[in-house]
TrEMBL record:
This is Galactose mutarotase-like enzyme. CDD domains: Aldose_epim_lacX (cd09024). GO terms for biological process: carbohydrate metabolic process. GO terms for molecular function: carbohydrate binding; isomerase activity. InterPro entries: Aldose_1/G6P_1-epimerase, Gal_mutarotase_sf_dom, GH-type_carb-bd, LacX. Signal peptide: none annotated.
């Protein structure tokens, strides 16, 4: 049975579920919600975590040595129950450890710690993946927060943009009908800006697999917005279901298999080989009621 844990400070209140350690609500001091409500008729997620893979495997299987294992799109962490191991007024840490179920599809002993802590007008999500085995462990990780579109600032939906920290030139990538990595796709960034509209996502996600920026701002010019910072994550995806009232800003380490990929899991694009008994860190920061020049 899942449980909701609430942390707060003077600026923000977060509700987080033990199911998937998933953020359920970001509410500001005026009672306005910034996170998608997870309407199951459209898309039931709020901000799931992607582990131990990001995206889709060819035929939903990967090879490790002479064995084959099945993993669903984005892995299993978002469907697992986490234990809250630290609970403080403005900070909470959730933990997931391997079990008989995970070892059937991912034969590695691991510890996954996800910590939320609040700062003024913002939240930080720190993730640590520890390899508890005596051999290297392959892992990817992805963040998937769905911000409301339009944001609760009074700005019209059609005026919302995504502003990148740096110029993003060249082609980008996407996924095909099977969720596998394809490219190139037309880059919608002009003068560091994507003018948001539903048609951008007719072919699923936009994937900046070699993103130059380490942060983006979402909002309508002249209004407050939200900033997502991702200094430890090398890729970024933008995704929504056309017609829905959210935009997922997804910093990733890794992505789906290319359709012709036939390699071992350690050769999968974006995989981090974590050394025995070592820990790898991932993380993002989300700022609420932020100005464009805070980027």
């Amino acid at each position: 049975m899942s449980k909701i844990i609430t942390i707060k400070n003077n600026s923000l209140t977060l509700d987080i579920s033990t199911a998937g350690a998933e953020l359920q609500r970001i509410q500001d001091a005026d009672g306005q919600d910034w996170l998608w409500d997870g309407n199951p008729k459209i898309w039931g997620g709020h901000a799931p975590f992607l582990f131990p893979i990001v995206g889709t495997l060819v035929q939903n299987h990967y090879r490790l040595g002479d064995k084959s294992y099945e993993l669903p799109r984005h892995g299993f962490a978002r469907r697992k129950a986490f234990d809250p191991v630290v609970v403080e007024p403005d900070r909470v840490c959730f933990r997931l450890k391997d079990d008989s179920e995970t070892r059937t599809v991912y034969p590695f002993p691991f510890t996954l710690d996800i910590e939320y802590h609040l700062k003024e007008n913002g939240l930080v999500i720190d993730v640590k993946v520890t390899n508890n085995s005596d051999s290297p462990m392959p892992a990817s990780f992805g963040f998937h927060p769905a911000l409301r579109w339009p944001l609760p600032t009074g700005a019209d939906r059609k005026n919302h943009i995504v502003l990148f920290e740096k110029a993003e030139v060249g082609s980008i990538s996407g996924v095909d009908g099977d969720g596998l990595f394809v490219g190139p796709r037309e880059n919608p960034v002009h003068d560091r800006t994507v003018i948001l509209n539903d048609d951008l996502f007719n072919d699923d996600a936009l994937i900046f697999d070699k993103v130059a920026s380490r942060s983006v701002w979402m909002g309508a010019p002249g209004y407050k917005g939200a900033i997502v910072r991702f200094p430890l994550m090398p890729s970024l995806a933008l995704w929504m279901k056309p017609g829905a009232d959210y935009l997922c800003i997804e910093p990733w380490q890794g992505h789906s298999d290319p359709a012709d990929f036939k390699g071992d899991i350690f050769e999968k694009p974006g995989i981090v080989p974590i050394k025995p008994k070592e820990t790898h860190s991932f993380g993002i920061e989300i700022l609420i009621n932020a100005d464009e020049n805070d980027l």
